Each structure stands twice: as C-alpha cells, then as structure tokens.
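Hello again, I could really use a second opinion on something today. I've been staring at a protein lately and its backbone has me curious. You're getting the sequence in one-letter code plus the fold written as tokens. I'd be grateful if you could look everything over and explain what you see. No rush at all, and the record is pasted right below:
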Amino acid sequence: MSEAIIMIVEDEAVTAMALKRSLTNMGYSVCGVFPTGEQAVTKAAELKPDLILMDIKLAGKMTGINAAAEIRATSTVPVIYLTAFSDDRVVNAAKVTGPFGYILKPVREQELKTTIETALYKHAMDMNLREHQETIRVLLNATPDIHFLIDTEKSILMANQALAKKAGKTVKELVGSNVYDLVSSGYLSPRMAGHSLQPGQSKGESFIEQLNEHWYDVGIYPIASPKGTISKYAVHIHDITRIKVMEEKLRQNEEFFKSIIDDVADVIVILNDDGTLRQKSPSLNRYLGYSEDTIPGMRLWNYIHDDSLAVIEKLFHDLGKNPLGVQPFSLVFRSADGKPVYIRGILSDHSDDADYLFDGLVLTGWVRKEQK
C-alpha cells in the first residue's frame, strides 16, 4: 500500500504542498498537484493514479464533486474528499460519487494515513469482488443452461443470457422483475419459478419438469445471508429433451425387440458383457421348456449343460479380445427336464455399435433340427 501513486487536487498552494510533503514522508508517490477540477479530469485519465485526494471547493467552474463524478464515470480510481465543511448538505452531495472517505481540514497526518490505507484496501477488495462477479457472469453465460437468482419475494436479482434469450428480453430488463411474469408468458412453469418453496425453506429441490413439449432437469438451491437466514434462491434449469427422446426410442426398441423374441422361431438373447440376461428371452425358455417360475437363473451359464461350460468360458474370453467381433458357437444347453439341447449360432458384440438396433451382446442361435 505504501508505494501507491496519489494525485492531489487542491487549489490552496500551501495546503497542497503540505499534503505532498506528508505523503512523500509516508512513502507514497505523488504524481501531480492540480488546482482545478478540469485539470483533475484530464490528468486522472493520463496519469492513472492509484488514489486521488480531492478538495471539494476548487478554483475554476468545476467543483471537486463534479470532477470526481466525471472521473468515476470512466475509472475505478478511489477518491477521498478534502473539505472544510462537514454539514449534511455537502456530505449528501458527495455521496453519489461513491467516495472512499472524507478528511476535514486542517488535515492531521495520522488521519490522512489511516484514511488512505483504508481506502486503498477497500478499493483492492472491491476490485477482487468485481473480478469474482465478472468470472461468475462469464461462466453463467458460457452455458446454454438457464440460471437465475430470486429473492424470497420472487423478484429476479440476477439472470444469465440463456434466460434472457428464452424470454426475448435483455438481462437488464429481467433484473428487478417478478419471476411469475415469465410463468404467465409461458417461459417457465410455476414450479420452476419456486411456487412450492415455503418461506425461509432451507432445503433445496431438484425435479424433472415438462413444459411446452420440452423436458427440463431443475434444481433450486437456497442461499443463506451472513445472519444465517435464507435470503435468496439460485435456480438452474437444464434441457434434457434429447435424453428423454433417446430414452423413449430405447423403450420402443426394447418393446419391438421383445415382440421379435416372442414371435421368432429360433433363439435370440441379449446379454450384458458378464453373461447376464438383459431380457427374459422367451424363445430360449420356450425351447428349453422353462416356465416363468422355473427359469434357472439370470446368467447364460445357468442354462448351459456341464459339457459346454468350458466352451462358453472360451467363447466369452475370445469375444472379449475382439470388441465388436463375432464368434460362432455350438453349445449344449440343459432343458427343464435335464436333457441336452444342441444350439448352434453366433455371439456378436454390439455394446458400442451406434448403428445397431440393440446395445449389448447378441446371441443368435438355431436349434439343431434333430433336437426339435
């Protein structure tokens, strides 16, 4: 802090020189001393000081308050006012420029140092906060997901571009509006707007919501104030329509596959890579004589005759070394009455085959005619 560069704006030469001497003795660098507000505005843009000591009453047409307002419009440099007046009228007029402190004349050195150090520290914290807020803003706008913040009265405190685009508004227009305006417009459902939240509810909510032929994964998260009370809620909305469509297609495929299995003349079995059955395989149970109540288990091994256990182990081992491969087989299965049933066919791996109708290992077999 002690190496900060400070600009002095003071029209009283004696006071200005005394300030410069004090600042130099404290270890600060003084980049210039200027008597008018007009010069202050120009030189602040040129010299870019770390802090400005600004007398409120200056020579020229511009007051220190006017000069600070112009400087603060284009810069974040902190301003500390110097004034011989302490009445409320002057202080209230200066407040709107966001000063970082006031020092009454005549200036005392210790007060000067304390006020400057406090202002520089507060300014550094403000800059860190601004950077943090900007980082959050960029992150929130880098995703197509909807994010917004509401208070307990359902007013929108913050929103990202995704919500603004959906609502056909700017972020600035959304902030301060009531979230239920978006409900009545059809952009959000009541539940997305937090209608089910109880006053002060400290437990978050997550749910799947359908709206306007789209599906959304919604999360509502409470945010506590420094006093521990719930003061606002963060809402995250992720469009999962594509996932839902894929789930429906998979369900339809599975139903279609089941109908194929039920009607097929030969054996078709869908397996996981560990040999467990992904379907009940009616065709296999029909050929082997098992009923719903007597199936031997949910692994293919449960159906295999002892004579073929070594063969089935080798079959899966060879397929594991050749992903997306096809292995022919000739296996002896065990029927419900213990008799051997000979089935020949192929075992193919479609676990990562996007072009295939079903996901997993597919066993397609034909019962040898003499066994029928």
Remarks:
- The chain has a mean pLDDT of 85.
- The first helix runs from residue 13 to 25.
- The radius of gyration is 38 Å.
- The first strand starts at residue 5 and ends at 9.
